[in-house]
Amino acid sequence: MKKWNDSAQMILIAGFAIGIGIVVLTVMLNNIIYASNTASEANIETNVFDFSSTMKVTTHAYEKAYEANSIDNAYIFNYTRKMAESYALAGFIFTLSNDSLQEPYLSQNGLNNGNSDWVVIDRVNRTDIFEIGINTSRLGNESKPFVIEALNQSGMFWSARICNSSGTFNLTVTNSTDILRTENIGGGSPSLNITNNTPFDFHFDTLTSGEQYRIRFTNGSQAGGTFSISGELTNGQPFEIKRYHVLSTTMSLNKNGHMEMNVTIPVTLPGGQI
Predict the structure, then answer these.
(1) Where are the domains of the chain?
(2) Keywords of this protein's UniProt record, alphabetized (predicted)?
(3) 3-state SS, one letter per residue, for the chain
């Protein structure tokens, strides 16, 4: 009887030991899997961060190379060479190619497929310069007009609606309730100086005086053109935003024959300063 009790105890102890071993192995395996996944995710996040940073640095390089309505090709060549040397240390092949300067659209990224409705500048206290040039050959009709708006907390209180009406340039200026002015101008690329009331009174200065507002473009992909806006923000800091050209640059990173990244970046020039 005693011998049977001893055998039962040994079986119980062995079973307990096996159970503890299984638990330990399971915990270790889970830790290994977790550590592997964490390392993998960290590597992915680092790559995404690196790629995003490279896109921003490349955009800044083109902004620095933009002078007198042209690109300093020597500057971009040196930038590309330095980036290629830096990435070569990590086993990457860095390449950069770009298209020629193009007339921009008035969308957010300067392309005709860009975000059409966007806030150009927010928290404005005063606008000193607001010039815009419109290419009427790229202008939408009455059903899709390009609209410039000034909005405060209550909503739109000034707007300029611009469209191509049977081959003529039509502009309508309104406040929140009334039409203040309607003009028909010939084709071409009219230059509008909104703050200087040229070629006619836009009522912009009088309506925005004393207001804190934002300037928004609507249907920007329906209009080609350039603009320059500067003034003062509500915190007292000056701002200046200009857009005269857009350029598309293609940046790629290749490692061991595998494409890690191949992206085309639209760059609006010159770069805006806020």
Answers:
(1) 1-32, 48-98+247-273, 125-236
(2) Membrane, Transmembrane, Transmembrane helix
(3) CHHHHHHHHHHHHHHHHHHHHHHHHHHHHHHHHHHHHHHHHHHHHHHHHHHHHHHHHHHHHHHHHEECCEECHHHHHHHHHHHHHHHHCCCCEEEEEECCCECCECCCCCCCCCCCCEEEEEEEEEEEEEEEEEEHHHCCCCCCCEEEEEEECCEEEEEEEEEEECCEEEEEEEECCCEEEEEEECCCCCEEECCCCECCCCCHHHHHCCCCEEEEEECHHHCEEEEEEEEEECCCCEEEEEECEEEEEEEEEEECCEEEEEEEEEEEECCCEC
